[in-house]
Amino acid sequence: MRTHAENAELALLLEVAGTPKPGNVDRARDHEDLRFEHFLAGAVGSAAGLRAAESGAPVGEAFEAAVAGMSDQRGGNTQFGCLLLLVPLVRAAAAGDLSEEGVRAVCDATTTADAAGFYRAFEHVDVAVADPPEGTNALDVRRGADAVPELEARGLTLADVMARSEGDGNAREWREGFPRTFREAERILDDDGPAPDRGARAFLRLLAEREDGFVRTTSGPEAAREARERARACLDGEEDPETLAGEFVERGINPGTTADITCAALYVALERGLAV
Amino acid sequence: MRTHAENAELALLLEVAGTPKPGNVDRARDHEDLRFEHFLAGAVGSAAGLRAAESGAPVGEAFEAAVAGMSDQRGGNTQFGCLLLLVPLVRAAAAGDLSEEGVRAVCDATTTADAAGFYRAFEHVDVAVADPPEGTNALDVRRGADAVPELEARGLTLADVMARSEGDGNAREWREGFPRTFREAERILDDDGPAPDRGARAFLRLLAEREDGFVRTTSGPEAAREARERARACLDGEEDPETLAGEFVERGINPGTTADITCAALYVALERGLAV
Lengths: 276, 276
Known about the structure:
2 copies of one chain form a homodimer.
Chain A: H1 4-17, H2 36-55, H3 59-70, H4 80-94, H5 100-108, H6 112-121, H7 148-154, H8 158-164, H9 169-176, H10 179-190, H11 195-209, H12 213-219, H13 221-235, H14 241-251, H15 256-271
Helix pairs in contact in A: 1-2, 1-4, 1-11, 1-15, 2-3, 2-4, 3-4, 3-6, 4-5, 4-15, 6-8, 8-9, 10-11, 10-15, 11-13, 11-15, 12-13
């Protein structure tokens, strides 16, 4: 029987192994400076932080530890967003209630110290984020630990920070009880075949369902719209996802948020009995 | 900084990710019932046993725990042989002497209880092994825990058991201070490029250097000779390893022992500074 932390680590590995996932590193494709083995090392490195989450460490502390371990490879940011979703899910599972209500309770219970851990995590790795709204630079995540006094002065919890992250698909999961994660987990369980193949199909469904925030930030709104439309065309059989995967990697269109939610959904599916 | 156990887990993942490795599951190829994700789950599952080895648990106990965790997937035996090499290496590294002398000291210090742990590990998973020599059926590893009274009656340590395993390439490493492992680790460090590619080249060199015992057991001596010769032809540029990989997977020629030593060499290379 795998532990909750082991299921989370396996979800990280199954996510990156699934192919084709248009635009992402997968079993068949690398980016130039971000390769498959960076994700393998990132998963191994994050395991101690995931175990801390399972053992009841505060969410911010466990998340920072997971990100610090993940960063011990030369590819840069591999799984920051995945871990932001996995840590509260693992906490909810360890508390015996891996459900929308259970994970909502974990998120609602976060503190200013958790928010500080989240900010400190940005010091371990470069994360592509959107510019903060006008007038909120004091809380720009890129400030890392420098923003902690401001968090404390305002008494913001990690849940508050997520509530302010408009347009970020992972923050939306945090705010709303992980609805896409749980819905997609059920679709993965209803699917057939090897787990990585199910993950790749989940990725396409999620991308077709909603524009990817990471693509919007890194490649612009036009690319985000295109990625969604072409994922839908793949689902409708009008495009070949293998061909699209090659094209998106070449053009640097990288639906990272969609991969994060795919990973979170694989984790929930593993906890609910997906066999590997 | 990865721990010794984390480096060992990463070595398991890098080994299976390296491609082409003629005849083996790799990043580009699955066997029919033994797929890439089984190795991912096997690596995750073995991590607790590897941590036990690092923490000073007896070799046999740590090995059995690693194999039990590894077996929690539906592919069957994925990394039994890798773990047989990794556990004493991790112990040697944790003791501060990852060298031929250091690992020899670990092996020499094994007890009858360690031998019993090794035998019990065979109860967790089906391992393809050669028939024991005439008159030694009482110590056939396939008897699992049933052989333990015989081990105890004869006072055999795990090192003694390995000394009796003629013709097994992993047992030979145990007996001789892991000479191929350490030599290949240096070649990996002298090589260039991504770690999985270095692993794939190490696999070919090792296969060209000595006939694979697992191929001999599962496909016969003729196939073992052919595998070695054709690996040599790949190194000489007379054969394309990609083509050979496809052919060997199709014919079921699976150089498992060579993969085990490749994994052990990747582990030593990681400990000696191979960057990922």
